[in-house]
Amino acid sequence: MxxxxxxxxxxxxxxxxxxxxxxxxxxxxxxxxxRELVDNALDAGARQISLRLLGGGIxxxxxxxxxxxxxxxxxxxxxxxxxxxxxxxxxxxxxxATMGFRGEALAAINAVSEMSLLSRIDGAPSAFLLDGQTxxxxxxxxxxxxTVEVKELFFSTPARRHFLKSxxxxxxxxxxxxxxxxxxxxxxxxxxxxxxxIIEQWRSHPGEAGWNQRLADVLxxxxxxxxVNIDFRSGPVHVRGRAGTPDAARxxxxxxxxxxxxxxxxxxxxxxxxxxxxxxxxxGHRQPVYVLYLQMDPTRVxxxxxxxxxxxxxxxxxxxxxxxxxxxxxxxxxxxxxLLSNNAPVSxxxxxxxxxxxxxxxxxxxxxxxxxxxxxxxxxWSQRGMAFGxxxxxQDPATAMAELKALWGDxxxxxxxxxxxxxxxxxxxxxxWPLGRAIAQLQGVYILAENSQGLVVVDMHAAHERIVYxxxxxxxxxxxxxxxxxxxPASFSATPQEMATAENCTEVLAQLGLxxxxxxxxxxxxxxxxxxxxxxxxxxLTRSVLAELAQHDAATVVQRAQNEILATMACHGAVRANRxxxxxxxxxxxxQMEATERSDQCNHGRPTWRxxxxxxxxxxxxxxx
Length: 625
Ligand SMILES: Nc1ncnc2c1ncn2[C@@H]1O[C@H](COP(=O)(O)OP(=O)(O)OP(=O)(O)O)[C@@H](O)[C@H]1O
Ligand SMILES: [Mg+2]
Hints:
By secondary structure, the protein is α+β, with helices and mostly antiparallel strands. It has 22 helices and 22 strands.
């Protein structure tokens, strides 16, 4: 007798099971239901959305809106799979502007819960209530709009229910889902109730000014105070929103909100673009914070790639990456000292508000920030900053190094006027300088300066390092890294990946000052390395560059490697601790800081200066003012 065949008969699944399987993709936990129902309310044009929960959303989720409602004859259709009012054709799908488009959500939720739909449209004699289990419809009472009630989630699929976490955890996820919506739609009011108590309420803030108010409501005033405005167009991509200063970065990536055409997304291209904008200013593994809204023609992004719509695919991911990177980078480049108000105590730590937005899209929340318009003197300083940047000379690195050694020689001349007793003119000028007038050097490490707000403390090595680094970067923009041949080539056995990369990227490697060639099918030889790194381990350097090249596109690697080499050079070139500086030299350094991009952080992301306000000093001495 032969073995029984392992094959089983092919049959069609029963409808209920089909729906439950499909629901598995859409509804993972109470928060998924919340997200779908709020999506629907927003698509219906709601101005006020209330969420009521019991048991972290496991026992009950009710979403009530004041949107357009559903006509009674369409209510049963709304619960069917693949039934939607939002698209009718493939063309519609390709340019979809609503949150929903699949006609799946209500059907999926209905398949794994006890659901009811209560809705009324304008002009109807009453509201109607549809029982999702029985399909029974009866008249009911409510104003125009819709309430969806979802009870006992996963009651029919107990295995699923076991995957749920504690009520508190599920509740936290539900709140997070609403937060994401709330950040994108300040004109809509939101309220969240749990077990009969109101736990969050974000009032509607219509108009452009509403954005900052909503950000402050949801993420706190601190977020707004410690972030800069973004409004940047790059090709077909428009990026708006706010990005946190490096000091506002957090240990976890839990305040990174990105939206594409109003939809919250988690996207590698966006995250990486943002991350790379912070690369040069962020310390260690700190995570930046931001809320950014990307707008682009809907046909440039495919929203139909993920069952919960949290991922998208861009037609041109490079253009999105660049837009993100440049949007944040350019906003962060402006030294914060130049944005200081003359009467607000501010430090780059962002513990106070200092931001004067350039456009009405994100203006400061009323009351807290509106006293902070840039003064005429600040404008002058930022203009000088720009002029400084425009002066860039295009020298080779050797000249650049020579120049940076001479840096301390040339700057004080411009400041000869500072010598001698301080005239009232000079004092006035000092008041206008964001970083103030140098008064002393402390322990060979810090520069102390006086500005309109009090005391400024500068870490002179860190600050100078950044200045030298930015200068080198500008000078090297168009030139190559010089390389030095090795006396004896360093060979190593390479992986197939490394072999392939070395072969494909000879030119990029040369740009980086590396000459790498194959000795055999499994061996690579390093024949030349960047002059500035000639002392290091050639093989290790080559391997890490090859690994980077395999992962990222060549342009990014070249830029990053150049920056890293420059950072090393800058560290050597910057003034050392314990070097005595004259007041002129200190003032020259302060002025250069004001005119240098990213000068609030050293090359390793540490702060270069801090403000100690008069108020803080007074507090130290218990002095009531
Ligand atoms: N709160 C609401 N107010 C008005 N109409 C609604 C509401 N919720 C659902 N509808 C109607 O019911 C239909 C089905 O909703 P459902 O969420 O299942 O699908 P969808 O939103 O069209 O697509 P998706 O599955 O992508 O969410 C919607 O197209 C809409 O016409
Ligand atoms: Mg929907």
